[in-house]
Amino acid sequence: MRALVINCTLKPSPQPSNTEALAATVIAALKGHGAEVDVVRAVDLNLKPGVETDMGDGDDWPGVHEKLLSSEILIIASPTWLGRPSSVAQRVLERMDAMLGETDGEERPVAYNRVAGVLVTGNEDGAHHVISEISGGLADIGYTIPGQAWTYWHLGPGPGPDYLDDDRGHDWSTSTGRAMASNLVHAARALSAMPLPAPPS
Questions:
Q1: pLDDT of residue 156
Q2: Is 107 within 8 Å of 180 (Cβ atoms)?
Q3: Dihedral sign, Cα of residue 132, residue 195, residue 108, residue 199
Q4: Which run of H or E residues covers position 7?
Q5: Which of 45, 80, 187, 194 could form a disulfide with 146 if both were Cys (CB 3.0 to 4.6 A apart)?
Q6: How many degrees, rounded to 5, is the angle at CA 181 between CA 90 and CA 144?
Q7: Phi, psi (5° rounding) for residue 106?
């Protein structure tokens, strides 16, 4: 089983990413369940604006799209900015919009029988809003969102320390992340054993 984590931090490599640090705890849990995990730091790529799988010369999205189609599990990891997902997360979802028009050999949307979850960091209280926005988009595309397929970290509204600067709340975020990983893996296995059919015509 393969999982893909798309880190939608605004910080290019090699800058430290709080979102990446929290994602590492979920990645460890996924590997504990036997999953192979790929990580994409989207801000490092040239993801052109648009809603097609390939936006032409220099577009790095086709490589990400290939990873999406080879993964049963997807995690979108985003910081919170102004109480909303990052602009990078929005770009990723816009590029994934093309998947709505793609089907497999059995005429199922390509996101069918794949599961997805959301991971959020930030020092302001917008985590549940970010989770709902991203989860809603992924469900529209065709992903199955298991119960409690998310984790987050923040220390309440207003300015404050970052995840990498403060240990408070880490135990809860890690524990919730382990549950998230378990739910994603078991839901993916269930869909593999009993796949969703193509939508009725």
A1: 76
A2: no
A3: negative
A4: strand 2-7
A5: 187
A6: 55
A7: -110, 20
pLDDT computed for residue 105 by the predictor: 92
Q: What is the DSSP letter of 56?
A: S
| Residues of the chain falling short of pLDDT 50 | none
> Residue with structure tokens 């404050």?
160
How far, rounded to the nearest angstrom, does the alpha carbon of residue 97 sit from its chain's CA centroid?
14
Q: How many CB atoms lie within 10 A of CB 128?
A: 11
Tokens 């996101």 belong to: 111
DSSP string over 115-182: EEEEEEE-SSS-HHHHHHHHHHHHHHHT-B--TT-EEEE--SSSS---GGG--TTHHHHHHHHHHHHH
pLDDT in tens, 98-119: 999 999 999 999 999 999 999 9
How do residues 52-65 score in pLDDT, each as one tens digit? 999 999 999 999 99
